[in-house]
Amino acid sequence: MQTAEKIQLLEDGHITDAKGFIAGGIHCGIRKTKLDFGWIHSEVPAAAAGVYTVNAFQAAPVQITKNTIEKSGTIQTVIVNSGNANSCTGERGMKDAMEMQRLAAEKMQVPVQYVAVASTGVIGDFLPMDKIRFGISQMDENDKAHHFEQAILTTDTVTKHAAVKVEIDGKMIAIGGAAKGSGMIHPNMATMLGFIATDACVEQESLQLALRQLTDSTFNMISVDGDSSTNDMVLLLANGMKKNNPLHPGHPDWQLFLQGLETVMAELAKKIARDGEGATKLIEVHVTGASNKRAANQVAKAIISSNLVKTAVYGKDPNWGRIVCAIGYSGETFDLNKIHVALGDHIIFQNGLGTATEEKILKDYLEEDTVKIYVDLQNGSEKTVAWGCDLTYEYININASYRT
């Protein structure tokens, strides 16, 4: 059987497609009416890996979870609240995050060092702990993954979830994930919250290796607005309930597992980019012909992060000059006369000059929900893909009134 045939993207996949995981969410009162407190729980302790925001001011829950995973390498329960980031809240914020961790451990009857905590929302406000305590008291082991997916959202307009099944050691293991992210998204550890679970058995160090490696090709290749938050993290849990031989880089199916995991992470990354605050279009940038991976990534990130490119796409203006300009300030060096740029199937720049492609054809293409920009640098064999969105008036409306 070919590799592609061993990976099945589920049509409506969720994090709880992985055996032994449940998830749920409720309204505890932090937000006016929307669900705002969620949890994930594994029937058995799971090997855990995490990647975290590189913002210098990491929020209390990020610090608590990072320290917990570094010490134990194991997580069984994850709790998340939206509406309040518990960020820039000093000593009280740390105490509140630790209390969340302790109360969840007591409720789910697991060791406190097996609990991860995450928060998202407004920065600078103290957590309303009476409401958090109520939320924790309502945690149960009924699987309502769609409630969890709703409870972690802030300005998102849709839930984001995906899952695959992969054949490992002759067993069909599942990898499922859920994420939130709509604003403050920039390719520097993916400003977002992401949670991924698998019922495969994976060595903890190898799990961390896989997550860090694949974050660079998925969540670190998206951008909405150039801002990076204080609360971002992605957690990956593997509870081993399918009882395959432990996965590690020397396992014959290791690459297959990585491909399955990357599929889930890429699906979540694209959904975040598509749901950028106020966005009407997904922008997908394909860069080929780079001399090395860094160069390919730098060019792709420069294009998807360019406000001029983003506004041109929103305005249906096929302005190739903005794309070429972004390539030029990417920090890499290229021969302008070798570069080819296309919008979809339509070449718009080559041999150092714009082409004579009819303007109406290009404007019609920019009516599509997904706009694909292809850049061939003709300078090597490396390639990459990045995802972003257009920049609209609605983005300003959303963020001008975020707290009010």
Summarize the structure in short.
By secondary structure, the chain is α+β, with helices and mostly antiparallel strands. The protein has helices spanning 60-72, 90-108, 129-137, 145-151, 204-217, 254-274, 293-305, 307-314, 320-328, 359-365, 393-400; strands at residues 7-9, 21-26, 37-52, 74-84, 115-122, 160-168, 171-180, 193-198, 233-238, 282-290, 340-343, 346-350, 353-354, 370-376, 382-389. A hairpin with a 2-residue loop joins strand 12 (346-350) and strand 13 (353-354).
Question: Helices and strands in order, then pairings?
Answer:
Layout: E1 7-9, E2 21-26, E3 37-52, H1 60-72, E4 74-84, H2 90-108, E5 115-122, H3 129-137, H4 145-151, E6 160-168, E7 171-180, E8 193-198, H5 204-217, E9 233-238, H6 254-274, E10 282-290, H7 293-305, H8 307-314, H9 320-328, E11 340-343, E12 346-350, E13 353-354, H10 359-365, E14 370-376, E15 382-389, H11 393-400
Parallel strand pairs: 4-5, 8-9, 10-14
Antiparallel strand pairs: 1-6, 2-3, 3-4, 3-9, 6-7, 7-8, 10-15, 11-12, 11-14, 12-13
EC number: 2.3.1.35, 2.3.1.1
Family: Belongs to the ArgJ family.
Function: Catalyzes two activities which are involved in the cyclic version of arginine biosynthesis: the synthesis of N-acetylglutamate from glutamate and acetyl-CoA as the acetyl donor, and of ornithine by transacetylation between N(2)-acetylornithine and glutamate.
* Fraction in beta strands: 25-35%
CATH architecture of the largest domain: 4-Layer Sandwich
Summed up, the domain count is 2
What letter string, H or E per element, gives the SSE order?
Answer: EEEHEHEHHEEEHEHEHHHEEEHEEH
Spans where pLDDT lies below 50 across 5 or more residues: 183-191
Number of strands: 15
Q: Per the principal axes of the C-alpha atoms, what is the gross shape?
A: globular
The average pLDDT value, as a whole number, equals 90
The CATH C-level name of the largest domain is: Alpha Beta
Q: Which fold name corresponds to the CATH topology of the largest domain?
A: L-amino peptidase D-ALA esterase/amidase
